[in-house]
Amino acid sequence: MSADKRILEITDRIRERSKPTREAYLERVRQAASNKPKRSLLGCGNLAHGFAACGPAEKADLAGDVVPNLGIITSYNDMLSAHQPYETFPQLIKQAAREAGGVAQVASGVPAMCDGVTQGFAGMELSLFSRDVIAMATAVGLSHDMFDAAVYLGVCDKIVPGLMIGALTFGHLPAVFIPAGPMTTGLPNDEKARIRQLYAEGKVGRAELLEAESKSYHGPGTCTFYGTANSNQMLMEIMGLHLPGASFINPGTPLRDALTKEAAKRALAITALGNEYTPVGEMIDERSIVNGVVGLNATGGSTNHTIHLIAMAAAAGIALTWRDIAEISDLVPLLARVYPNGLADVNHFHAAGGMGFLIRELLDAGLLHEDVRTVWGEGLRPYAIEPMLDDAGNVARQPAPEKSGDEKVLAPATQAFQPTGGIRVLTGNIGNAIIKISAVKPERHVVEAPALVFDSQAALHEAFKAGKLDRDFIAIIRFQGPKANGMPELHKLTTVLGILQDRGHRVALVTDGRMSGASGKVPSAIHVTPEALDGGPIGKIRDGDIVRLDARAGTLEVLISAAELAGREMDKVDLSGNQFGTGRELFAAFRQFAGRADQGASVF
């Protein structure tokens, strides 16, 4: 089935815009490709270093030119729940490689940090830049030219985009992404949010809060709400980089292990040494990127991907813009209600039909490009399935269920929760911004109120504790962009602003920072570009200025004359406190060279 005419038009526009950079990228990929292992070009001393730690059989295999070698890039650590399951994956992958007549080596580790740990603290200022560090660490691991394909073990917020950028930089190699899966369901998300609000109001203590948080985040696997981590997994599957049905299988289960082994074997099957050569740089094209944007909107995914998808596409020479994302949002209905867009978690989403049901519905509605290449083969239709184990313990697949198991969580396209995906671009004299409205009630899509200006989320918290915020206002949190302090997520604002909104006040947020994949019920214009430190008008707003955020019209305005705005001096803020401590001094060059949020906020 062909994609909808309007989806085709947007794709063609992206393709035409990208032609110079895409053609140059593909030429580099084709120059790097070879029908024999790159390691065959290494000198004997170089090669000996490359397999010195292997056993005799692996050394013999790698000394020749016919046995494929699989590189493993892993984000394993045993502190973070999402990445702890990866401890056992390399052995499973090596076993699968041997069974398939190949070899596998861990090529490198990449850092994996958790925004959940660093929220509200100095470490959060390293978070966005960790994506580009991960891309560079991936390149270091693959630079040895020992590999015919690579598998990527990563899950969370910046890890998957960083791995993706690294993989596309080595676009001549096939790439398969292997997820670890979500933790099992713990404390319901609405109950967790309730306890957080009670704590913020001083009605429960730290012990009660920690108990609730520990019941929510309680075991191995990703957090179960639909933030950036689980949006990553959706993207990798709908873009054809996962095996069909792989995204949301819990860790430590036989099916999870079987999918991991199958992924390793598939990666070896699509090298240049076989008949199904699928270099990731050619496989991921404009259609794949559009499919990712469609999936993001159809599921109410993380606003972080309005930054990451642009950076990922750029790594393949594809020029994606916020306008493209917003126009696709206008065409794509919201089919999933997963917290913070609903009460369910990703385990409920998977049980209701999951990715297979979602992909089938979007394909049948003409909203996805079916004619794409994937790591599984030609076309996206084989992803409209449900995975299971057969009697021999291998992965089996059956068609996705005809009906959703729970239409309050996962709806058919004909009964969508809303007609659009809910990601909008706002424009006006403050700049350009992103707003996610899929969890915001329609009556709150327009807020006009006096500005209260803060230079940190801590300052707003202090004002709240002092009782200064019991009124209508729009919080302006500026000097939070990539150049200022690394563009941290300001997720701790969610609870305070939610309390004030529940008290009946009309409140909103405008910031050049990020709000994370957990963007919720308070209207929030985020990623304001240009940022304050880059001369953005957000740095000229004063307390008491009337600001209008209109998600319906797509506008973001401070209601003063153009002459007055132009004549104002930019506020100056002392940012020296963001320059040192918790490793921030090592990222000075990143802050200096970081691009704009609407261009991917990348240092590349």
UniProtKB/TrEMBL annotation:
State the free-text cofactor note: Binds 1 [4Fe-4S] cluster.
**Reactions the enzyme catalyzes:** 6-phospho-D-gluconate = 2-dehydro-3-deoxy-6-phospho-D-gluconate + H2O
Q: Which UniProt keywords apply?
A: 4Fe-4S, Carbohydrate metabolism, Gluconate utilization, Iron, Iron-sulfur, Lyase, Metal-binding
One GO location term (cellular component): cytosol
Query: Which residues does the UniProt record annotate as the domain Dihydroxy-acid/6-phosphogluconate dehydratase N-terminal?
Result: 68-380
Pathway(s) this gene product operates in, as recorded in its UniProt entry = Carbohydrate metabolism; Entner-Doudoroff pathway
Gene Ontology MF, one: phosphogluconate dehydratase activity
Entry EC number(s): 4.2.1.12
The top EC class, named as a word, is lyase
Cofactor(s) needed, names only, are: [4Fe-4S] cluster
Biological process according to GO: D-gluconate metabolic process; Entner-Doudoroff pathway through 6-phosphogluconate
Q: Does this entry carry the keyword Metal-binding?
A: yes
Q: Which SUPFAM superfamilies does the record cross-reference, listed alphabetically?
A: IlvD/EDD N-terminal domain-like, LeuD/IlvD-like
In this chain, [4Fe-4S] cluster is annotated as bound at C156, C223
Give all residue intervals belonging to the Dihydroxy-acid/6-phosphogluconate dehydratase C-terminal domain.
Answer: 408-601
Give the family per the record: Belongs to the IlvD/Edd family.
HAMAP family per record: Edd (MF_02094)
PANTHER family per UniProt: D-XYLONATE DEHYDRATASE, PHOSPHOGLUCONATE DEHYDRATASE
For this entry, the protein name equals Phosphogluconate dehydratase
Q: Which organism is it from?
A: Paramesorhizobium deserti
Q: Give the organism's phylogenetic lineage.
A: Bacteria, Pseudomonadati, Pseudomonadota, Alphaproteobacteria, Hyphomicrobiales
